[in-house]
Amino acid sequence: MCGIVGYAGPKDCVDILLDTLSKLEYRGYDSAGIAVFDDGDIKVVKHQGKLAYLIELLKKEGRPRGNVGIGHTRWATHGEPSDINSHPQSGKRVSIVHNGIIENYAQIKEFLIDKGYTFESQTDTETVAKLLDYYYDGDDPLNTVSRALRDIRGSYALGIIFKDYPDKIYAVRKDSPLIVGVGKGENYIASDMTALLEYTRQYILLEENEIAAISAGTISIRNIYGDPVDKQVLTADWDADAAQKGGYEHFMLKEIHEQPTAIKTTIMPRVSDGMVDFSECGLDDKKLSSYKNIYIVACGTAMHAGVVGKYVIEQLARTKVIVDMASEFRYRNPLIEKGDLVILISQSGETADTKEALNISKRLGADTLALVNVKGSSIARDADMVMYTHAGPEISVASTKAFTVQISMMYMFAFKLAYAKGLIDTDTYKDYVAKLIGIPDKIEAALDESYVSQAQHAASNVTAAQSLLYIGRGFDYALSMEGSLKLKEISYIHSEAYAAGELKHGPIALISQDTPVIAVATQRSLYEKTLSNIKEVKARGAKVILICSDGFAVKDDEADYVVRTPDYDEFLMPIIASVPLQLIAYYTSVLKGIDVDKPRNLAKSVTVE
Ligand code: F6R
User: Fold this and answer.
1) Distance CA 162, CA 169 (A)
2) Is the per-residue pLDDT at 592 higher than 90?
3) What residues contact 173, with CB distance under 8 A and at least 6 apart?
4) Which residues contact 168 (CB under 8 A, 6 or more apart)?
5) How far, in Å, are 305, 309, 315, 365, 478 from residue 475 at the CA level?
6) What angle do CA 398, 403, 404 make, to 5 degrees?
7) Could you tell me what percent of the chain has a pLDDT over 90?
8) What dihedral angle (degrees, nearest 10) is formed by the CA atoms of 532, 538, 543, 549?
9) What pLDDT was estimated at residue 98?
10) Coil, strand or helix: which one is 271?
11) In testing the pocket of ligand 1, which one of 296, 325, 355, 399 has its CB within 8 Å of the most ligand atoms?
């Protein structure tokens, strides 16, 4: 949610702020704004809508000139997207950019109104700007920031500038990510390292309520009591190209095509002597097989990876797996106890609900394992054990490569657990691992050959629909859920996923000739059953797009269009069959002229509840 940047150095900071904001637009794009020290004053320019409108405005009305400033791209929480509600928000002597939610902003606002302050926006952020103004006594702004922090409740990453300190940016965070980028004679702040990759790969992770003060040549970090804190400078291992479109029309398409590499990079370092090696996080066979129950807790696409994980682990390793949406888990007093393992899956590692689920699980005494893509993110740091997926930065709001690497890790987990429990012998174990290793090449070949054209054709069959259903059984039901989520978020077509066997219990009432059905059938053992369900919907007029393996026989009257996946061991098919589902959603979005990477109302990384 919301992107924050800041620059202090010798260069024209407007160029740098706009460029770094463009890298963060995926975090929110309701409005954008900058605040720059210009000729002894803070000049704020902001505009509703995408960053392009702000750039136009700066062209039309002239741009501030300065070397120190902050910038913001917004995903609205309090107050509709509008010029006035855009950030930066200001008091008389301070301007701030904010990501997060200030829960007690109404009380603070009331207090400040009593003191004579007036408010022009509907945002919670303006109350923080005015509160800082209220406490500011012309002395060290660090004291002002730490004083104000004692009053505010909620989540925040804040970039702050004070009029009297034109060479400095202050930064602080709680429950929202924020880093300090370390350059040579110039320094930065950013809510996400991808913003800075072209400028520096050195960074400092701010811990909760540490306050950073940066200028061109200095970085000082103190805790809320004003004591200096020693921080380690880290190096990002993502290169700048990873955050560029690299010739693809959209990040989503690029990221779909990156999947073979992402899977290889994630699994290969964890294969040793043909078997799975999780020693990186201390998860040996003894410990792994000791868990009574496994909980997988996550949100959205990551949660769907957990559903695939449940099927895989229960089927092969015969350990009970409970999958939960983090937003439900946190309020339902879950039956977790010592001796259980809770796996938190998250691409960003910052999702607010997943983070809270992690806290609850730790409090209840379970072991926690984070499966996370972003290094050093909160969930990765707070869990007992962490395993990183190595998908590289995922910029498109719709998650693709993060999903296939997450499910690849679920397979590794299941293989290892099944072996540790003595349920499979060494040959079978090695055979499974070898098959997993073979998957990237299968996907690569399918992307080169027929996946794209088949998905384009399938998309042209659903673009006009108001609503459609995805159906499947077993693994294919899990994939249907993910396919349906992907389609609705980037094409705005309403769709639901149902277990195919559930159709007759209600959802079949939705079927008409105007409701296309995407049937996923990659499991030979369930194929006949799913075909019967397909016949039921066809008998009610639905057009059917069938996604099935190359070797499956399909009669003319059984589907209106067939998308073929390569033949492979059906136990591993979910990884291969995810890709056409992603491509169908992608091309539907493109055909509808939607901004694929930045669909309406959404933002990457949901750091608020
Ligand atoms: C959908 C999507 C979201 C995320 C969800 C969890 O395409 O991207 O559903 O999967 O918000 O995000 P992470 O994985 O960052 O915790």
Assistant:
1) 8
2) yes
3) 156, 157, 158, 206, 208, 209, 210
4) 8, 68, 141, 161, 162, 213, 214, 215
5) 11, 10, 11, 31, 5
6) 130
7) 87
8) 20
9) 95
10) strand
11) 399
Asked whether residue 26 carries a pLDDT value surpassing 80, the answer given is no
User: Residue whose CA is closest, atom 7 of ligand 1?
Assistant: 398
Instruction: List pLDDT tens digits, range 48-70.
Output: 998 999 999 999 999 999 999 99
Reading the block at residue 485, the tokens are 């989520």
- Among all chains, which residue has been given the structure tokens 């399938």? 458
Tokens representing 488 are 């609705």
pTM exceeds 0.70: yes
Catalytically active residues, by annotation: 2, 604
Which position has the token pair 């306050």?
211
Q: Give the pLDDT confidence of 71-94 residue by residue, as tens digits.
A: 999 887 888 888 899 999 999 999
Those residues whose C-beta lies under 8 Å from the C-beta of residue 95, and which sit 6 or more positions away, are 35, 42, 44, 70, 88, 89, 129, 160, 161
Whether ligand 1 lies within 6 angstroms of the CB of 489 is answered as yes
C-beta separation of 285 from 416 below 8 A: yes
Cα torsion for 108, 114, 116, 119, to the nearest 10°? 40
Asked if 172 and 145 touch (Cβ cutoff 8 Å), the reply is yes
